[in-house]
Amino acid sequence: IAPQTDKAGLTQPINQTRFRVGDTYSYVRRNNLTGVEMKRFTRTVKKIENRLVYISNDGAEEIRTLDGANVLVVSSTTSFSYDPPKLEVPVDALIVGKKWTGAYVETDKRTNQKFFREDQFKILLQEKVITPAGSFQTFKIEDVSFNQMGTKGTLTYWIEPGYGLPIKNVRTVFNQKANINISETIELVSRKIGPQ
Description:
Blueprint: E1 24-31, E2 37-49, E3 52-57, E4 60-65, E5 70-74, E6 79-86, E7 99-108, E8 114-131, E9 134-147, E10 152-159, E11 168-174, E12 180-192
Antiparallel strand pairs: 1-2, 1-12, 2-3, 3-4, 4-5, 5-6, 6-7, 7-8, 8-9, 9-10, 10-11, 11-12
């Protein structure tokens, strides 16, 4: 079986490697309500061991599975762990229209509070996206999440086949009263791929 090129000219290799030791992604985070730059940060794959990927996020450690599911995520204010790991990208090919749902126990590592969380994912379309790092042919994915405390979030992100971290994401989180708690955009500024 050989990989096929789709209508947009993208070829998704079979059993592709999404992470390589030394992969480095630099990002800028902006507040969507004010347009103000909030932070610049860099994520670097430090090691891959026992099918887990260890990523330094400006010194804090993130952990993903080799196929890209989140085990431990570092955010702007805290870090969260997921049990089972939160799968944000399908293990197999990216196909427009594909849907999947995940249910997890999300633990806020700062407070040690545990919440039941459900995410509904859908690959919306193939789209060319432009960031400060350049132009990329991507798949646009939407993640709508809910937790038991009444918090709702929408995360839209753009993934390039063969790479483990997004090119861009736009996140909005609403509290229990439907007020916006977080509204931000994160865009790729530069990327360096580690050796094969």
